[in-house]
Design brief:
The chain is built from six helices and no strands. It has 140 residues and is mainly α.
Length: 140
C-alpha cells in the first residue's frame, strides 16, 4: 500500500527537521569531522536523508493541494513555487557540505545559520500548521 501525499509530506518534513536537530547537536560538539570518523559518518547520513527528502518536496505538497481541492489554489501555487526555490537553495547548501571530505562542527554550524536552511524550516513550519488546521477541519 503506497503512502498518501499527506503521509509522504509528513515523512519528508520529519526527516528534514530531524536532520536539522542532529546538525544543531553536531555543531555544538566541536569535532573536526575527519573522514571515516563515526560522527562524520552520522552527519553525512543525516545530510543525505535531508537531501533526499528535499527532492520533489514541492511536488508532494502540490499533489496534496490538488487532491484536497482547496479554495484559493492560486495562493497555494504561489507558495509552492516559493517552497520549490527555498528547497532548491537549501539543497544546494547541503550538497556543498556533503561534497567536502571532512564535515566539521564549524561547517555544520555555518550551514545551520544559513538563511536558506532557516527559510526552508520556516516554510515547513507553515505547512505543518496548515495541515494541522485542515485535519482538524476535516475531522469536524
Amino acid at each position: 500500500m503506497s503512502k498518501t501525499a499527506q503521509e509522504q509530506l509528513h515523512d519528508r518534513c520529519n526527516a528534514i527537521e530531524e536532520s536539522y536537530e542532529f546538525m544543531l547537536a553536531y555543531a555544538a560538539q566541536g569535532v573536526s569531522g575527519a573522514p571515516g570518523s563515526q560522527t562524520g559518518g552520522q552527519v553525512r547520513e543525516y545530510l543525505t536523508r535531508a537531501d533526499t527528502a528535499l527532492t520533489g518536496l514541492a511536488d508532494i505538497f502540490r499533489t496534496l493541494v490538488v487532491d484536497a481541492k482547496v479554495d484559493s489554489a492560486d495562493a497555494y501555487e504561489t507558495f509552492i513555487q516559493m517552497l520549490e526555490r527555498d528547497a532548491g537553495d537549501a539543497q544546494a547548501a547541503l550538497r556543498l557540505a556533503l561534497a567536502q571530505p571532512a564535515i566539521s562542527s564549524q561547517l555544520v554550524d555555518n550551514l545551520n545559520a544559513s538563511i536558506h536552511v532557516r527559510t526552508l524550516l520556516t516554510d515547513l513550519f507553515l505547512i505543518d500548521e496548515i495541515l494541522k488546521q485542515r485535519i482538524a477541519e476535516a475531522s469536524r
